[in-house]
Design a protein that fits this description.
heterotrimer; A alpha+beta (270); B mainly alpha (411); C mainly alpha (177); A: 270 residues; alpha+beta; 4-stranded mixed β-sheet; 3-stranded antiparallel β-sheet; 11 strands; 17% strand; C: 177 residues; mainly alpha; 9 helices; 0% strand
Chain lengths: 270, 411, 177
């Protein structure tokens, strides 16, 4: 009977230890809520991610396709040079006129993005008189409300930050590529050097220092509008943009609810 | 030489047609041959296990000679199932994080647990209960390394009284019953990894897990037919033709259901013709012609259906030697066809741009982690493991306990 | 269970939580089958070692903000910016910026034309990259895809052989030199 008792006690002790182990992360989380402000030496001091909500939007009518933003992004973020790694890129849409006598509203749609638009766009081979309309569309991470990429990350190495960016943790990413498959907008790639997923992070190291993202800084026509939705200032560019324009987002039917919005978007863009 | 020619031909085809997102325009698909092998191998595991449970749960007596072989096949392939995944990771050394901080909204994070459950709670347990009596017996008769191994496998339990064995039996039966949904879960879940990607209209499909399970059953049974025939041939034993006929029958039924559901999927896609159907249709016709029309449909489905169908109708009238060849042929064709099916799902999903405006073509290389050679090594690894397992647990000279359901007649 | 003496000492097992003494008395006669006992031990061993590993290997800042490493925010933020930004230029070149703000180039940032100037901002002795006329063309070359409101020229028809700056002042594009 004594032996039995000790064994029961042992089981009790084990189950107690299990409970302790299970609840430990919760206790840690509670402790962490106290210190939410950046403290390390390299990071911008005193930045509180809970006091901001960053967002970028686009005015398609303002983009001139110079591609300087693409170049700036590559320089700022040390994006691999090859022509299939981009955190942001520019697409050119050329919608041809319908054939004479046809009952169509528009003809063939040609889309291209030579080197992501980084070197600008060469004149098109389509003669001007055959073009119904043509325009440039800048693309980057759509900062989805319901991000499919962060949803599928098996280890929580990519996530939505409280201040509206979607980051990749390069020291925790296992490089499975699931997030790249899950992004409907083709915004992610696997960095060949670090072997981790990479994408636009709204130049997180800049915005936390009060600077604009490199592409926004460099854009000569203000086609890229960037701002803080929690900014109490009335004339915050992003708030003014959303108020002034009728906006649309990409692939809304997928339910990803992109926060990035476009003014003057054509239906051919996806 | 032939490799050079293939490469030359593939390179002659422009890599892209139409528009693809710049990040999609790399020279290699993100998920290569390794990820084709992953669902293939897991499918074989699930299928082989279901084959074994036909004996244990559904008491299909004629299949008893392949019961242990199917379980060992499932084990050998399951032990290799994680390897393709591990090798394709950018940081394999961080893979443990999937178990330590599993992000529960990710289908991939659950893999560690589904896998661990299936390996430890289902396969190991069922094998252990089934083999326990033999382990006790063999640990007495065998010496040296084998003796130590068998003694270790008894886990120190030497009770082989009738009562204990009856309990073993009962538990083993329960585990089998739990094992069937687990096998469905394991492979249905692999289908879900692809089916859950709504960004990709080729993958994002509610029926994907079901197709994966059905094709898994087909490929698993085909693998058991293959292994059984090869093993008896290697050991110069006579095949149990009754067993083979019944396996062939189940293979035929499974294939009929699988082919029907896959056809249904295609009909649904073509009829609803949702956004992007045209680019997928083009891709299927141009880029996947050999693997889809020839590999999956003709070799993997129509020919085996015909062969097995004939065998069902004319079983008695076909001479034994021809019958054996027909079964063997169907099994091999199905194994190739299901591999082609996995290729079509995994690569097909990456052959068209998510902009739905263009298609890509990739060149699969011979060398490299994602090359053919690595794939072949990974595909032969489970067979090597299976050989070792058979030497250890299906050795001819080791007597097996007589109790049902694992009389190993013919092997 | 089992008529033989239990060789592994699995007897006398009691499920935790059966507190009542009477029940314990009754249950003490229940012997757990040895194979089950071994498996239960094995399971407990596996689960406990998993939980210990989880405890040891989970990064310290995990779940600080959400299901991710909280320290990652700081790590990503601690990279040094490459572009200095218009504000940095304003510290020394405010008169140029004032002129710029009056003309059509008011939306253009300094580094759009002058290139990365972080080094120059830190040390004025380092001069930024010299500009060439191709910079103007990059934006102003006629292209049917460019919006109609934007000033465009067809370079081969537009005063060939002359430099842009002979007629245009980049900082005040609306003025004539």
């Amino acid at each position: 009977m004594k032996f039995e008792f000790s064994r029961r006690r042992m089981l009790g002790a084990v189950s107690g230890a299990l409970a302790g182990l299970l609840s430990a992360p919760a206790a840690r989380a509670a402790k962490a809520t106290v210190q939410k402000v950046f403290a390390s030496s390299g990071a911008p001091n005193g930045y509180d991610p809970y006091k901001h909500k960053w967002l970028m939007c686009f005015d398609v009518d303002k983009c001139i396709g110079c591609g300087l933003c693409v170049d700036a992004c590559k320089t700022e973020n040390h994006v691999p040079q090859a022509s299939h790694y981009f955190r942001t890129w520019i697409e050119r849409y050329i919608i041809k006129k319908p054939k004479p006598g046809s009952d169509r509203t528009r003809g063939e749609v040609l889309v291209d993005s030579p080197n992501g638009g980084r070197d600008g766009f060469p004149p098109t081979v389509v003669p001007r008189e055959e073009i119904l309309k043509s325009f440039f569309v800048p693309k980057l991470c759509n900062l989805c409300e319901a991000s499919p990429c962060t949803q599928v990350c098996p280890v929580g190495a990519t996530f939505d930050t409280p201040d509206g960016a979607v980051l990749v943790d390069p020291n925790y990413c296992i490089g499975c590529g699931f997030c790249i498959q899950a992004c409907p907008y083709g915004c992610r790639f696997l960095n060949p050097e670090t072997k981790t997923a990479e994408k636009c992070n709204l130049c997180y190291h800049r915005i936390t220092r009060g600077l604009k993202p490199a592409c926004v800084e460099i854009c000569p026509t203000e086609a890229r509008i960037f701002g803080d939705l929690k900014n109490p200032v009335v004339d915050d560019p992003i708030q003014a943009f959303i108020q002034k324009n009728k906006v649309f987002s990409l692939k809304p039917h997928l339910g990803t609810e992109p926060r990035v919005m476009y003014a003057n978007l054509d239906k051919e863009v996806r | 030489m032939s490799l050079e020619i293939t490469n030359a031909i593939v390179e002659a085809i422009p890599r892209f047609e139409g528009y693809v997102y710049p990040n999609e325009s790399g020279t290699h698909p993100l998920w290569g041959f390794l990820i084709v092998l992953y669902p293939y191998i897991t499918g074989l595991v699930a299928g082989a296990f279901i084959m074994a449970s036909l004996v244990r749960v559904f008491r299909v007596k004629p299949l008893e000679p392949v019961y242990r072989l199917s379980l060992l096949t499932a084990l050998a392939f399951l032990l290799c199932a994680t390897l393709p995944l591990l090798f394709h990771l950018g940081h394999p050394e961080r893979s443990f994080q999937i178990m330590i901080t599993p992000h529960l909204t990710s289908p991939m994070a659950i893999f560690g647990f589904v896998y661990a459950w299936y390996l430890m709670a289902v396969l190991f347990l069922e094998l252990w209960f089934d083999y326990r009596e033999d382990f006790v017996e063999w640990s007495k008769t065998e010496s040296g390394f084998r003796g130590i191994l068998y003694r270790a496998f008894t886990l120190g339990v030497t009770d082989v009284s009738d009562k204990a064995l009856a309990l073993d039996h009962k538990l083993s039966w329960i585990i089998s019953i739990v094992g069937i949904p687990s096998a469905f879960l394991l492979h249905g879940y692999v289908g879900f990894i692809f089916g859950s990607i709504k960004a990709n209209p080729w993958w994002g499909n509610a029926i994907m897990p079901i197709i994966f399970i059905l094709s898994a059953m087909v490929s698993g049974i085909a693998l058991c037919v293959f292994n059984y025939m090869v093993l008896t041939w290697v050991r110069r034993r006579t095949l149990d033709l009754r067993c083979l006929d019944v396996m062939g029958m189940f293979l035929f039924y499974a294939l009929v259901i699988d082919a029907t559901v896959e056809a249904l999927d295609w009909i649904h896609r073509a009829y609803s013709a949702e956004e992007g159907f045209h680019v997928m249709e083009y891709m299927a016709k141009e880029r996947l012609f050999y693997t889809l029309s020839i590999g999956q449909v003709l070799v993997g489905t129509l020919i085996p259906l015909l062969l097995l169908g004939i065998l069902q109708v004319l079983r008695k009238r076909i001479p034994d030697a021809v019958r054996k060849r027909m079964y063997f042929g169907s099994a091999v064709f199905i194994l190739i066809g299901v591999l082609a099916m996995r290729w079509n799902v995994v690569m097909g999903g990456q052959f068209f741009s998510k902009s739905l405006r263009g298609v890509m073509s990739y060149k699969l290389e011979f060398a490299g982690v994602e090359g053919w050679f690595m794939g072949l090594i990974l595909l032969s690894l489970p067979f090597i493991i299976l050989t070792v397992l058979i030497k250890l647990f299906l050795a001819e000279r080791l007597p097996t306990s007589g109790h049902v359901p694992h009389r190993m007649e013919g092997i | 269970m089992g008529n033989k003496l239990n060789p592994v000492g699995g007897g006398g097992w009691l499920p935790a939580g059966l507190a009542s003494n009477q029940e314990a008395d009754h249950m003490s006669r229940f012997k757990m089958p040895p194979q089950i006992f071994r498996l239960v031990l094995l399971t407990i061993g596996i689960v406990v070692s998993y939980l210990i590993a989880r405890q040891l290997l989970t990064p310290a800042s995990f779940r600080d903000f959400g299901f991710y490493r909280g320290a990652a925010l700081e790590e990503v933020a601690s990279r040094t910016p490459v572009y200095a930004g218009k504000k940095a230029c304003d510290e020394c070149h405010s008169e140029v910026l004032l002129k710029l703000a009056k003309g059509d180039h008011k939306t253009v940032s300094c580094e759009t034309c002058h290139g990365v100037s972080q080094e120059h901002a830190g040390n004025p002795d380092i001069t930024p990259v010299k500009l060439t006329g191709s910079h103007c063309i990059r934006c102003h070359e006629a292209n049917p895809s460019r919006p109609a409101w934007f000033h465009q020229i067809t370079v081969k028809n537009h005063y060939t052989g002359q430099k842009c700056t002979e007629c245009h002042v980049p900082h005040q594009p609306n003025e004539v030199p």
